[in-house]
Amino acid sequence: MKLLEEIMYDAGFIRSHTLQPKWWKVGKVFVLVGFLVSYGYFFGLAKTGIFLMVFLLLSLGVHMVYRTKTERFKRSWLDFVVVEEGNATRAKSIGVFYYGAVAFNAILALVISQLVL
Q1: Strand residue runs (E) in the chain
Q2: pTM > 0.85: yes or no
Q3: Which residues does residue 83 pair with via DSSP β-bridges, in sequence order?
Q4: 31 in a domain, yes or no?
Q5: How far apart are the first and last CA of the chain?
Q6: Residues 6+ apart with CB under 8 A from 60
Q7: Which is it for the CA torsion 108, 27, 93, 56, positive or negative?
Q8: Which residues pair with 80 in a beta bridge?
Q9: For residues 100 and 38, is the Cβ–Cβ distance under 8 A?
């Protein structure tokens, strides 16, 4: 039950944060789906599945590191900036380290998916 509560907490943070514009929160889903369809067309379903699994696993790792180091997104760490507004805290920005990790994850997943099978 505690795991479900933590997943719901993270989902709520992801939906409510203002670290990215709302259009990009929706747009990145279409970018990912478009990439996966294209990747599947050129390299097949198996390599696409491997890419997706590796990318999601690595991304979960980045998420958990940020979640732990920021104490559930309530403390600044590296490029994750939290500001206090009255009695509440709010995530203000995220930057080059986070997006660099996401890009690294995508490249590593791409390489791994090409080397397997």
Answers
A1: 81-85, 88-93
A2: yes
A3: 90
A4: no
A5: 38
A6: none
A7: negative
A8: 77
A9: no
For 82, the domain range is: 44-117
Answer whether residue 1 is part of any domain: no
> pLDDT tens digit string along 13-66?
999 998 999 899 999 999 999 999 999 999 999 999 999 999 999 999 999 999
Q: Number of folded domains in the chain?
A: 1
Token pair 């920005």 in the structure block, residue: 93
Structure tokens at 111: 């390489």
The pair of structure tokens assigned to 55 is 């990318």
- Structure-token pair, residue 8: 């719901």
Question: What interhelical angle do 22-43 and 45-69 show, nearest 10?
Answer: 150
pLDDT per residue as tens digits for the range 74-112: 999 999 999 988 888 889 999 999 999 999 999 999 999
Cα pseudo-dihedral 87, 64, 49, 2, rounded to 10: -80
The one-letter amino acid code at 5 reads: E
